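hey so i finally got around to running both of the ones u sent me last week. sorry it took forever, my laptop kept dying halfway thru and i had to restart like 3 times lol. anyway pasting them below in the order u listed, first the sequence line then the structure token line for each. didnt double check formatting much so if smth looks off just lmk and ill redo it

first one:
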Amino acid sequence: MFKKILIANRGEIALRVIRACKELGIATVAVHSEADADSLHVRFADENVCIGPAKSIESYLDPKRIISAAEITNADAIHPGYGFLAENADFAEICESCKIKFIGPTSRMIRLMGDKAMAKQKMREAGVPVIPGSEGTVNSVEEAQEIVLKIGLPVLIKAVAGGGGKGMRIAKTEDELKKSFEMAQMEAGAAFGNPEVYIEKFILNPRHIEFQVLGDSYGNLVHLGERDCTIQRRNQKLIEESPSPAINTSLRVKMGDTAVLGASSIDYESAGTIEFLLDKNGNFYFMEMNTRIQVEHPVTEEVTGIDLLKEQIKIAWGEKLSRTQAEITLKGHTIECRINAEDPEKDFRPNPGLINSFHVPGGHGIRVDTHAYSGYMIPPYYDSLVAKLISSGDSREESILKMRGALDEFIIEGVKTTIPFYKNVFSDPNLISGEYDTSFVESFLKKTAESKVST
């Protein structure tokens, strides 16, 4: 097994990797910016290296600094976590050339799936259903207009190198097409250094369903069931659950087999996620593949009993998958809420600052993944995620009730968080019934605002 792993990330995911390494008897190296000197991942790793100023581009997004840290500490592998360089094919390639194991898929696989237009074409060739749209990148408004004539409006214009909802615009009318196209290109260029976009048919109010996959270097590939990530705000996931209330057993098998088919078409190795859109008629379409561990991976861990981080590390070392598809079953129901340092009363504006009181909930079936503590200063430079609150029960109803109780127990003072927002959400009839789609948050906020006006 690896002797030492450097974690090229921060926050709760860095802590999660450190814990997995400890259970495997592997030493760890934490890298950190100057702003993260007091972070828990720095304290709990065996070694730590400061790699630069607060700005990500000068620290967590600088491959040279991370490789240098790995070399001076004699780390034989790098775990990228999620975000930052996790899906950067060039970084994975640098690791390969430096004989440092990148814990994830190969640079070829990342490159194939990182180009969203290329990924769609690859899935189409493999027989995976894809959303109708352009067969490659669209370079002009005139090209966009020709595609719209074929597939109709509304359409979604998406960054080829996109992720996290950036570089994405909807055009519902011909008049909106030009402006949306140019805005998507501009945002894609600013966010990813690549202004290329592609176009696909906009599926109205779908469910967002993703399947967790694991593949080893021996050609074994399995899925670990689905996560329903439909509840989003501005294309950013807020609540995830498994199993999905919108999927029955036969559809789960069909979608799971399709996810395995898609991942197998590129000989995928490591942990990854195949993401689908599911319409109201039970039709599903490939959206994209994430070639990394996901923020919401604890949901799958709780319903399958499989430690995804340890599996990912073992696969990178060259071990075979620990279970076959027949040995993987879903037990009970799990829900995750992303607790962000944001002010729901001010359009979810980020609210960094000093946490002066911090108490996490507990009890059977409650899990909290966090890097925060009382006295921790949330820096303004990074993602606003403070904690992931996970509840598990024998049924969806029990999991919801546990989540309500845990939200009541969760105390974070000194900064605004999304905890009050979730307390209201988990009393909403549509969430409780499981009958929701991607318009849920928008409708919920509108309903809440109207209720305040009427009172």
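and the second one:
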Amino acid sequence: MSACNGKAKGNAKLLENLRDEDLVEISFDWQLWAREDQLPPRGDWHTWLVLGGRGAGKTRTGAEWVRGMALGLPGFSDRPVERIALVGETLEDVRSVMIEGESGLLAIHPKAQRPHFEISKRLLTWPNGSIAQMYSGNRPDGLRGPQFAAAWCDELCKWRYPQETWDMLQFTLRLGEQPRQIVTTTPRPIALLKQLLKSEGLQIDSSTTSINKAFLAAGFVKRINEQFGGTRLGRQELEAQILDDRLDALWHRGSLDQLRQKEAPELTRIVVAVDPPVTSHAKSDACGIIVAGLCKQGRSYVLSDETLSKASPLKWARAVVSAFHHFEADRIIAEVNQGGEMVEAVIRQVDRSVAITSVRATRGKYIRAEPVAALYEQGRVHHVGSLPLLEDELCDFGPGGLTNGKSPDRLDALVWALTYLMLNKGAAPRVRSI
């Protein structure tokens, strides 16, 4: 029995003879139920970095810390913190995970303490007057102007603009005697995380998925460990390990970071590339959807990763057409190895007017990817912002494919897009306005 399971079961025995009102009060006492790694560090610190596997309790840890700061609870803050920033990957993630999720801020408060959520104002207000405001890792400039005494950053390694958003947030933490922030994330070896690990005033806690199995669905941990245990993906997603680059990978994170741009210049050509799955059941491959463009100087910019998991043909076709119109693309590049004429037919079912070029693979994935990787080495391809899931695939793709054995669907779509834009003489530019 793990320590946290023993604590939970031991506490449960103490509750058997208590009154209902006492049970309610105790059920919200985080100090009673939390693991040691889920409680704030003691001493003088500025940033608390909570690294955790999937389902390890990171969200609950972050939400309880915010609650403790807003209410001035013992062990968290000597007095209520009046202004708090909530920063997630997107505003939708802040709402659906950090605020309204099962372990989010609304769920962990007893009714009398629960903050009022005004989604139109992106604002939480506690009965004592403390407030928390919502911000997105996709919009660094949104943090210009406000000021806070505390901040909760969730899934930092998935932010589109991690460095820019983080830098803007640091300027806002200027209220109170000791501004502090908590970062809850499954680790990826991005430059910002490596930078944080070397910073002063840092406290780190790390937890695996297995440590929280008492609060996960029966059989989940066993099944997920059987599937991913011992793999590179499992070490990152379940054991919360920060992994170095795969030595034989075609791409490396340091190079991608050097080629990263905040925005693209005027583009002469934009395409949406799609690598559709064969089927749409629960174990199907994802549908890789990548948007990329070419500038008049001959460099390409990867604009967006719109990849979908477990999508029906109609769903992924709608996503492709939506990206085509949103980015004002010129053409859809569709791989037809698996679906043949059906691929183009389902896209035209959504919009008959879009321009489509069908492509068919005649060589293996690694051989097709090598000339595209060479374009990166020549400094001719840039990523606009961070594209974490795509970059995970790129940096884990070697001669034998991905270490987890799955299909590199994002990478495949990227290869088709850049091959068309930069290695296909038929992709002539046209005059456009962005």
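quick thing i noticed on the 2nd:
The two ends are 60 Å apart (CA to CA).
anyway thats it, ttyl
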